[in-house]
Each structure stands twice: as C-alpha cells, then as structure tokens.
Specification:
432 residues, alpha+beta, single chain, 13 helices, binds fe (ii) ion, 23% helix, 8-stranded antiparallel sheet, binds FE2/S2 (inorganic) cluster, 4-stranded antiparallel sheet, Naphthalene 1,2-dioxygenase Alpha Subunit, Chain A, domain 1, Rieske Iron-sulfur Protein
Length: 432
Amino acid sequence: MLTREENERLTRVGRGTAMGELMRRFWLPFLLTTDLSEPDGPPVRVTLLSERLLAFCDTSGRIGLIDRACAHRCADLFFGRNEENGLRCTYHGWKYDVDGKCLDMPTEDAESSFKENIKLTAYPVRERAGILWTYMGPKEQTPELPEFEWARVPDGHRFTSWNFEQNNFVQAIDGGIDTVHSVFLHSTLDSHRRLDEWQQQGKRDGDARIVHRVRTNPPKLVAKDTDYGVLIGGKYRGREGTDYWRYNNFFMPFYTMPPGGGSGLSKKIAHAFVPIDDENCMRWVFTWNFEQPLSAKEIAEMRAGASVHVEFIPGTHYPARNISNDYLIDREAQKTLTFTGIKGIGEQDFSVQEGMGKIVDRTREHLGSSDIGIVAMRRRLLKAAADLQEGVAPYAALHGDVYHIRSAELVLPADAQWDENENLKAAMTATW
Ligand code: FES
Ligand SMILES: [Fe+2]
C-alpha cells in the first residue's frame, strides 16, 4: 500500500514532477527504426513523458524528434509537408529542420530576422539495436545507453516489438516483476490438473520450472537493491535439500526481465514500459537468443503474437484484442481450457493491468508476502526520484554497463546464499 501522495509521486511523469524528472535522466526507446525508415515519409506522432512530439525522417535520412505544435500558432505538424530537409506547417508554411530550427517563414518579409529567434523543442535521437532512443533531460547530464545483452547481440539474434498499453507505466512494471501471477493468469486448466497430479505422485524430475512452479507451491519472496535496480528472488520449495529460485530483475527506470523466455535456455525476454503520459505507456518486448540467430519461423510466430508479443490491428501498434473488445474473452474457454479465456500472454496481462483503471489507487491495496519485490521496486523508484531532487543523479543512467546481466532460474542447495553464489553469478553474466 502507498499513501495517496506516494502514489502521485510514483506515477506522474510530466515535466517538473519528481518521477518525470527522474525519467528524463535516462535514454528512452521511442520507436523502431522501421517505424520511420523512409526519407521524406510520413511523420509519426510520439508522446513521451506527457510531451507531444513528432518524429520525422528528412530528405537526407536524418531523424528529428521535435515539438508537435508549430511555433507560430500551434498547428499540428503531423499534417505538415515533409520536404527538402524540413517539415513545413500546412497552416502558413513555416518550416523546421530536425533540430527544430525555423528554416523558412514565408509569412514575413524576406529581410525579416524573426525566424532566427524561432526554435522548436527538439530532442537528440540515437539509433541502436533497431530502436530509436531519445534523451529529454539536461544536456550536460547526458546518460549512457543501457548495455543490455539484447541491445548488443547481432541483429539476427533479436526480435523487438512494442504496443500501446492503456495504463500508467508503474502498473505494467508491477506485473512485469510479479513472479506469482503466471500460475494463475497465464495458465491452462489442463496443464495445472496434470501438474498437480505429478506433484502428488512425487514426480519431480525434468523441467525445474514446470515441476516447481505450481499453485500448490507458492514462492517466498526476497528482494535487494542493486546498482541497476532491484534483484528479486522467488524461492519455491524443491526436492529434499534444495530450493528452486526464480530471479526477476527490475532495471531503472522502467525495464523488467523475467527468468527464462521460451523454449531453449538461450532464449530470453525483457520488457521496457516507457511512459507516454500519466495514463499510457509503450510496452516493449525484446526477445533474444544469445547463442544463435532466431529462425524465420520463430520471427514469423512472434510477429503474429507468439510468446509475449501481441497480435496487432494491422499497420498499427494497437493490440487486436484490447480493452474495447474485452480482449475477446471466451467464457467457454475459461470454463474448460484456460484460466482467463483470453488468448495471448500479453493480452492476459493487459486485462488485469488496464482493467484496474489508468492509475490504480494503491491506497486500496492489501499487499502480501508475494508482493515483496513490487514494494522494493516502488521504494527504489521513489527513493531515486527523491535523491535526484536532492541533486543526486541516478547511478544507472551514467553507468550503462550495470545493465549487462541476465535473469536466471536455478536449483540451489537449501542453505545457499540466495543473492550471492557462483551458480547465480554464472547464470546472470551476459556474454554479449
Ligand atoms: S501555425 Fe504553423 S505556420 Fe502558422
Ligand atoms: Fe504476465
């Protein structure tokens, strides 16, 4: 539970808010390069941290991220003409380059110097890992890009997608590090019947995840602050003398990484939940294989919504199954097949996260022992925001190498130190 004031501080991201200023100290992924690949192509609306921006690719292939409102009388530059290395407002023809500089002002005398004084807000753009990143904070504090393994593997090893999620970003992070929910929200009834039988029969061999992670074996949670964010351990009762541990990571300021990530141990997933405004976020999914390229079949399946990617309304970043159609919940399937009756892991997550409302009222929560990681993440964010107000910049923003780790799952001896042991170190060390 948080107080009303804490919840406000945690969730508001506009300029001048505590959390908004913290977010402005980090690079933000805001589009795929393929969203904006064509010189002089259509500009793309981008809203980040409640600022209405516009991305465009000019004639020379340079990418700009500028204020969406024309400096003259605030017309929407989305409707502008993308022409000859600049974007021209369709209202009265003022024209801007990728740095926001006003290049032309046909409503004034040719000799007028008025245009020299006109500059739109423009944010720097970097391209990395097929993603466009921007930084909206003070220039002299420019951070490092996070050195995630998914950002460093060769391009063929990675598949990335993003979708609109219609709730505050912290709600999405809450879900992203919540190890307990999967055996409910993402489960099928059949597999659970089968697993419970296996357990009763004492069959504990094979896939550690499948054997230990069942509803009858709730984990004990522990969490600790780290350089990069919060390490969360979920301890599941194991066979005699052992525990099965799942490590979820929260990375400052909005990344999560669960252990595992699909068939094959070298395949991993991670998320970013980038605040669009107080009530919406971009949900990014990064799937990567650190040993080998992803196959064409795997990529085609993810494009169609496999794993935690989503099925889109064609040509958009909106999920086809969304809150406006109740995620196409199938009540019959819910009775007979799956816990939710909703198709898609992402969509199952949205049904609970968006279903809470845009900004959940955290004064009404009753947090239990399974929420220890979530409490630690929220405290970490609030503390970092308060520190920044005291003049202490977030460490992770200036040290991209702290992101160079993986999440892990391990069977450990019952007396092992959960957060420091050789097995964990080996499993969490990224190679790329
Ligand atoms: S509002 Fe854009 S040129 Fe007038
Ligand atoms: Fe989930």
